[in-house]
Amino acid sequence: MIHLIGAGGHAKVVLDALLEGGTNLSGVTVRADAPAPDLLGLTVGTPSVAPALTGLSFHVAIGAAEVRRRLYVEAEAAGGAPLTVIHPAATVSRFATVADGAFIAASAVVGPRAVVGRGVIVNHGAVIDHDCAVGDFSHIAPNTSLGGGVTVGARCLIGAGAVILPGVAVGDDVTIGAGAVVTRDVASQQTWTGVPAAPKAS
Length: 202
Ligand code: JB2
Description:
binds GDP-perosamine; globular; eight-stranded mixed β-sheet; 2 helices; alpha/beta
């Protein structure tokens, strides 16, 4: 039995990937913090994390990094085992490492010797080239491109369509705006936008 946490847009994408990968709908339960309409035909229960998850797999399917991290920790503490979900139409090198609880969407590419951390989202069409490292609970949004050897810290959001040039290092808790082109290293806890990307004026 798979315990899917979250019942919004991202949960729909993850459930779809599970079904495409051959998981039977009857083997999935969906839970969220608030009542919600059905998720692709599955009833949504509350609260997000059941009191006991011993013997169950779970996947936190929520975009917000801090919520995803918190519920991941809670679900592990309840005895659950984090499940990695990879859409069958994703391309993941046999030499890549994908950690527990990560999600790799359709048309994403993860190259050789790349490392994808716990609870990371690699969304549709994103490219993580060879030797990249993506830290725990980061979100690599659709159609982003990380050149070879890029490092991204924990809990980052790399916005849709952003490009990070090869070898660039991005710290923890960084937000990169959609469509930005990052040509140099970014320190932790910053927001960078534009082409070439620069710190966003506050
Ligand atoms: O503590 C919580 C919580 N616990 C469960 N805080 C919040 N904010 N949400 C919580 N949830 C559940 O996560 C909500 O009850 C709801 O079912 C789900 C959030 O759904 P929503 O559609 O708002 O966001 P999402 O995370 O599914 O999708 C976002 O991120 C994706 C990566 C959207 O921005 C999508 O467009 C995006 N593709």
